[in-house]
């Protein structure tokens, strides 16, 4: 599987490299929901959890993504957490990747008070923070679960103040792409042992990423007045990206992107832009800034209908496009 994906990735790169080199694009890659999007019993099995982690990091290492990864410490069961989670996170850190806080339980702010939310943030740092401190580093970044920042001005402001008091820098997202939906369908194909469906989903995922980049690139230039800013890409640690991220990576290279760390991306002046967006929805910061500037939001393309149908349980087999 990996050999085929890498071969396809090289083809994408070679086909797209010449026109893309005229661009000067930058992207910081981020992966949410660490240790992994997998059933609880897998993440509480030391051998299985470590195997998933090592395989994912081994896939990333030669690509030099310089990624930042965001951890839900509560994904590992309580009995295993004190020993298994540090071992897992050290694999990521040893590969030169950065850690951020994604809360303990992937809490939904819309269903909880600010105090409960911030308590979950604090629990989400109990292992990560001392682990980083032992390496002379600090836990700096926070990523909102679901990209929900608060559905009222008061709640949003209180959360932002609480995170600032704790020393966090919020990790925004400019390129959102619904990879979680493709991943959910991919897991169904895995459970069914359907390799042909897995391949179809993976190819649809790469095609969708192309479509969303066709949307986000000019849209982002409108926000900045003509230039594309350093982008922040949201992905998730799961089996879909284990198999298909190399082709996504090659797609970005073919479009002229240079991979940079998150801290470098956030030095782009656009990340100082005001954000007055308050809605019960998690959206790209490009939409938030567009709204703040008083311009109409133009929504990104949705995944193919057959992906949405399988994900939402309307069909169990892919429909014909």
Write a brief caption for the model.
With 321 residues, the protein is α/β, with parallel strands linked by helices. It has helices spanning 2-20, 40-43, 46-60, 81-94, 114-123, 128-133, 153-165, 179-192, 195-224, 239-254, 262-265, 285-292, 305-311; strands at 25-34, 68-71, 98-101, 141-142, 169-170, 231-236, 257-259.
CATH class: Alpha Beta
Helical fraction equals 40-55%
Cα(first) to Cα(last) distance is 24 Å
Mean pLDDT: 92
Count of separate DSSP helical elements:
13
Domain unit count: 1
Provide the β-strand percentage band: 5-15%
- Name the overall outline: globular
* Low-pLDDT residue intervals, each spanning 5 or more residues: 1-9, 11-22
CATH topology: the name is TIM Barrel
The CATH superfamily turns out to be Glycoside hydrolase/deacetylase
Q: What's the helix-strand series?
A: HEHHEHEHHEHEHHEHEHHH
Q: What class, by secondary structure content?
A: alpha/beta
CATH-scheme architecture:
Alpha-Beta Barrel
Taking the sheet with the most strands, its summary is: 7 strands, parallel
- As an assembly, this protein is single chain
Radius of gyration, CA atoms, in whole angstroms: 19 Å
Please count the beta strands (DSSP E, at least 2 residues each). Answer: 7
């Amino acid at each position: 599987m990996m050999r085929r994906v890498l071969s396809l990735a090289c083809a994408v790169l070679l086909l797209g490299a010449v026109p893309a080199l005229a661009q000067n694009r930058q992207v910081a890659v981020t992966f949410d929901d660490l240790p992994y999007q997998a059933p609880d019993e897998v993440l509480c099995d030391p051998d299985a959890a470590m195997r998933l982690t090592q395989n994912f990091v081994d896939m990333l290492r030669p690509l030099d993504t310089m990624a930042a990864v965001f951890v839900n410490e509560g994904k590992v069961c309580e009995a295993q957490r004190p020993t298994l989670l540090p071992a897992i996170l050290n694999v990521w850190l040893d590969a030169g990747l950065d850690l951020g806080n994604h809360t303990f339980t992937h809490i939904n702010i819309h269903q909880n008070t600010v105090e409960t939310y911030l308590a979950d943030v604090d629990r989400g740092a109990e292992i990560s923070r001392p682990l980083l401190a032992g390496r002379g580093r600090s836990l700096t970044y926070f990523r909102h679960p679901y990209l929900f920042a608060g559905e009222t001005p008061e709640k949003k402001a209180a959360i932002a103040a609480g995170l600032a008091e704790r020393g966090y820098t919020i990790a925004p997202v400019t390129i959102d792409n619904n990879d979680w939906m493709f991943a959910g369908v991919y897991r169904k194909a895995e459970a069914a042992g359907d390799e042909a469906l897995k391949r179809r989903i993976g190819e649809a995922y790469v095609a969708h990423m192309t479509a969303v980049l066709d949307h986000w690139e000019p849209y982002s230039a409108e926000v900045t007045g003509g230039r594309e800013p350093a982008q922040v890409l949201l992905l998730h640690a799961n089996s879909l990206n284990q198999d298909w991220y190399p082709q996504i990576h090659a797609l970005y290279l073919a479009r002229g992107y240079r991979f940079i760390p998150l801290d470098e991306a956030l030095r782009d002046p656009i990340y100082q832009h005001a954000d007055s967006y308050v809605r019960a929805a998690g959206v790209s910061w490009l939409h938030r800034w567009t709204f703040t500037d008083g311009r109409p939001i133009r929504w990104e393309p949705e995944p193919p209908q057959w992906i949405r149908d399988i994900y939402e349980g309307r069909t169990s087999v892919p429909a014909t496009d």
